[in-house]
Amino acid sequence: MIAAYQAQCQARADAALTDLLVAPYAELERLYQAMRYSVVNGGKRIRPLLVYAACEALGGHAAQADGAACAVELIHAYSLVHDDLPAMDDDDLRRGQPTTHKAFDEACAILAGDGLQTLAFEVLADGQRNPQDADTRLRMLSCLSRAAGPAGMVGGQAIDLDSVGHKLDQTALELMHRHKTGALIEASVSLGALASGKADSATLAALATYAQAIGLAFQVQDDILDVESDTATLGKRQGADIARDKPTYPALLGLDAAKAYALELRDQALAALQGFNASAEPLRALARFIVERRS
Question: To pair with 47 at 20 to 30 A between CA atoms, which of 77, 154, 201, 285?
Fold first, then answer.
């Protein structure tokens, strides 16, 4: 079920993203080429899937969520471009292809990331691409701004860089990952719910519990795959976290305990959806997929 749903949502998001990434005139073609390379160069589109699934879980339609789906993927892509830079994680492989600064150059990669980030907010503010009322669009803009900024993803990356070579306890490790990885995943679910036009406070709270659990589970599984998988399967350097002496769940808890924790988080996410009907089945399937994926 999840494979077909994923393919459907990927195709929808990819078409909308490609439409956004057309250079308005020839002088900007190289910049837009780098932006397109960074976005449409593979990827599972987990965040857009969560946007669409949350919207549909509340009785909304996918067309209502296209703007939000594009926005979260643009933010995610920008973060990967910047994280891969020599000043950050210094990676040369992403999704099985050279990273953006390798395929183009470092300055172009920085600008491409900047362009993707700001385009995300332009999309959410645009009433044609994000057909919500003005108050809802403002609420969505605020949600994504918090998730992407220093109180969310950017703050998590700062903690991550400061943690290299240090021993973190589980509380500190989870704080880092709830910011770096979890914040944008939580925003994806919230934005999808808001896009439906049918979100109330109780529903948003239940979805927040779900999203917090899968956001952390996603990172735990990433850490497990960094130990168990291989470079060809991952599409990025296997063992990179170990090589950089980064704190990870397998290093802290042990591999078996990390796997058990990922399953516990999956179960927490599923429990949060107990009050939802069959329309939330894609959200349930995504919770299972996140801890079963091999890349």
Answer: 201
